[in-house]
Structures are given as C-alpha cells and as structure tokens.
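Notebook entry, structure prediction.
Reason for the run: the old model in the group folder had no record of what sequence produced it. Starting over properly, with the input documented here first.
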Amino acid sequence: MVSAGLLRALTGCAFGWLLWLGLAAGARAEPQLLTQARASVVIDGAEQSFDATLPYVWDRWHKGRQGQAVFEIALQLAEVPTEPVLVYFMRLGNAYEVRLNGNLLDRRGRLDRFDGNDYAMVPRLMTIPAGVLGHDNRLEVRIRADRARRAGLASPWVGTRAEIMPLYEQEYLQRVTGTQFAVIMGLLVGTVALALWWTQVNPSLPAGRQREPLYLFAAIAEYMWSLRVGNVLFAQSPLPRFWWDILFTEAIGVWIAAMLMFSALAVDWRGRFSLAALQKTLGVLLVLGIGCAVGAQWGHLWLLTGWYACLGIVALAFVAEYTWAAVRGGSLVHRLIAAALILNVCVGVRDWAVFRLQMALGGNSLMRYSSLLFGLLLIYIVLRRFREVAAQVRHLLSTMAAQVAAKERALQASYAQVELLAREQERVTERTRILRDLHDGVGAHISAAIRQLESGKASHDDVLLTLRDSLDQIKLSIDAMHLPAGDVTGLLANLRYRLEPKLSAADIELLWDVDWLAPVERLDAAGMRHLQYMVFESLSNVLQHARASRLRIEAKARAAGVVIRIVDNGQGFDTGRPVRNGLLSLQERARTIGAALRIHSGAGETMVEITLD
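New structure, fully documented this time:
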C-alpha cells in the first residue's frame, strides 16, 4: 500500500511538472519571423515590383545577373515595447541599408558599386531603439546583389534580446567562430607540414627527391583550405574583388588536387594510373579553372559549373578506387584516409544540394569542419612515423649496444693477451738487460781475470782487484733495480758507497761536489742503468789505468737538465788513438739515453762530462 501511494504521488508530481512546463512554454513570447515583403528589383536599369516571400535568394531568380532591390516589410505589433528590440538577419546583402519607419538602423557597403566589398557572409544584428516602434511599422531593406555571390535577403527575426541573441549567437558561432577555428587549425597544421617538408631531408636520395612530397602537398592543401573558408572573414577583400574571387575559386581546385596527392602518397598507392598521370590531369584542370573563374566573373556561370563537375568526376573516380583498395587489403592509415575522403564527399554533396540545388540563403557549410580530418590524419601519420623511427632507433641502439659490448669483451680479451705479451716481453727485455750488463760489466772483468791468470804475469793482488770489480758491478746492477726513475743524486750516492773504499785503498782522494738534483723525468729504469754504467765505467778506468791521486765527482743542475763530471789528475791518454771498447760502450749508451758525452784528457787531468738536457 505504501508503495502504491508513493507511486501515485510521484506520478502526480511528474504530471504537474509537465503541465507547468507546457503552460510556461505557452506563456513565453516567441520572436516574430517576417516572411512577406513588397519587392522592387532593378536590373540593367529595368525595374519591376512584386510581392515576394522571404527568404529572397537572388541567384535563384536572377542567375548570373547583378542589380539592386528594395524590400518593404510590414511589422505589426499588438503592444508597443518600451525597451530596445533586436532585428536579426541570417544573411543580408552583398551590401545593404536597413531603415525602420525612416530611421537608419545599419548600412554596410555601397549600393551603387557592384563587385565591391561583400557583407553578406556573416549574420547581422541590429538594435531598434525604444520609442521608434509603433503598432504599424515599415521595415525597409535595400541591397546590392553581385552575381554568383549568394546575395539576397533572409527572413528577419524581430524580438527582445533574450529571444534573438540565442539565434544570432548560434549562427555566429558556426559561421564566424567555427571558421576562425578552422582557419587557425589549417594554418597551424600547414605550417607544421611545411616545416617538416623543409627540414626532413634524406641525403641518400638523388637531388630533387630528398624531401618528402607528402608534407608539401599537405601544407598546400591546408593553406588553400584556410584561404577558401577564411573568405567569410574578409568582408573587404585584400585584392581587387575580381581577382580575389578568381583566387577564392581556384583555391578549392588546388585543395582537391593536393588532398588527392596527399592521400596517394600517404600509403604509396598508385591505383590504375601513375602519380605522374594524376598530377598532369589535376594540373590541366587547375589551369582550366582559372579560365572558368574568369568566365564566371563575366556572367558565364556554366563554365564554373562544368569545371566543378570535371573536378568532381576525377575526385570521385579516385575516391572510389582508393576506397576499394583500402577495403580489399589496405593498411590502417589507408582505411582512415579512405573514410575521411568518403566523409568529405558526402558532406560536399550535402553542401552542393543545400547551396546549389535548394539555393538556401542561410545555413552553414559543413565541409569547412570535415576537412579538418585531413589535418588530424597528417598529425597521426607524423606521430606514427615518429614512433616507427623511434622504434628503429631503439632497435639500432640496442643492436649497437650489443655490438659495443661484444667489441668491449673482444678488446678486453685482446688487452689481456697484449698485457700478457707485454709482461712476457718485459721479462725477456729484463733478461736481455741483465745478460748485457753481465756481458759488458761482470763478463768483461771475469774475462780479464782469466787472461791475467793464463798469462802468469799478473800478481795475486791484480787478479783479486779484477774480481772485486766484477763483484762491484753485480752489486751496482742490483742497486739499479731499486733506484727511483730519474733520481741522479741517489744513483751517484750508491756509486760512492760502493767504490769509495776501493778509492781509499788505492790512495786516491775523493772530492765530492754533488748538489741535490731534481729527478730527471725522461730517465726511466733503463736510462738509469745506462747512466750508472757510464759513471761506473769512468770510475773503473780511473782505478785501473789513470794512476791518479785525486778524483773529483761533480753534479750540477742546469736550466734544462743535469751535468755530471768525473775529473782525475792521472796520466791521461791520447784521445786521437783508435777508440777502445770501453769508450765505444760509453758513446753508445750516451746515444741511447740522449745524453751529450764529452771526454777531455791530457797529462795531469782527464775529464768525462755527461750532460742530460
């Protein structure tokens, strides 16, 4: 019972609400639509008057002709409004002048100058001030009508602001604001396409084919369509009206041609004819279009109609075959473009039926919005290509990373092998060096000791001295292994430590004049050994052959290096005689380490100078 009562209550409320809406709708005032007028039309100086039913479509009654017309419209009001009233015309002109009871409401353009500025492309809203209206009113509308420009007079609406503004704003939104949006989008997409065409260059292709023509045709199509639909925004044409209309007419042909080429190139589709044949056909039609547009300006509208028919035949044949190929096995892009083409064809047929067959004076072209699909498709194609290229780049990067990793592993293995070989070579070099030192130093001394023993002439002390020299050579070779690279001061100190006892035993006074020397950077371990041998050889010669009583060792730093001098006061030798093996070894080692060797000898003084720069 409760549920039944609640249901009856809800039903009663709903019925009451609907009844209130109906009463409110019946009580609300509606704007007044004026459809009857007395018309006076003047064409080529001939005037005719008649009763006309609005809207009055000029091209329907006076096709291909131009003239002026005056429309007198009776406006009957039961009550005289005390507030301003609005008059709204969906289409008016090409030029016009509107008066109410003799009072000027609005005027745009010159009525006596044909092919001038066109003010009929946007809706017109006028205000009737309070106090002008009475019970019986006369609305007078004068227009100038140019040929083939959809001139005429739409049925005016009269009412309050609340009644008229929604009608006006809806029409303004579709015809003006929507056009602005379409133009801005077209210019934006066209500029992006042109930038892509200019910047995306494939240098691997022959000259003249390095840029992608798809983007160029898309840019041309978007620019031409923006020009075509943007004509609504130009009441005052930027060019003389004659040439502006020709450009405006040709823009639709260029747009159709560019869109067909864009559609074919987007999927690399060739159909039953080549792209070159399509380009030639469309090129011929565009050239003919200029002539047909000129003829239409002179009143031969059939030329323009025939040109539109030829463009339509070519476009429909292309769309039919293109769509059939897309249905049979086309890609997603192919099918999307085919759907956009079909939609534009359907919208185009609708606009043609509305504005050419029915000769509707109001209304809006829907094709200005449907053509935006191609801009969206271009953005989709660009994003899809970018995604494909990005995937390719990622694949290449991953492949490259794998190759680099493989190369790094191969290099690491190669480096390990090279390092192993280097260590082996270092060991071989070190063995060679030790053998050379043994041969040049220890070996020479042992050989000398053997010759002394074999001759039987050498004393026990002489043989012992030679063997001790050999032992000193071995010790110095061991010391050289632990010397820091370039430490000349340490090298000389080791020599002094090893040889000073022998000098004292031989009654040779040692004068030590060695400064602290900075390390010589270019002397590595091998260079240090060569330098040690050179100094040791020089000191051994003093001990064995010089018969000196005093020996001075000097080491001084120079701006560019170090100078070492070994000077004794012995008997000297003749430097002009053939060079002995010891001196040859000194010269060879000096060249090896890049040192300058100078030897001066005479009675009472012998000097060996080693310069390291």
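Summary: The chain has a mean pLDDT of 82.
The old model has been moved to the deprecated folder.
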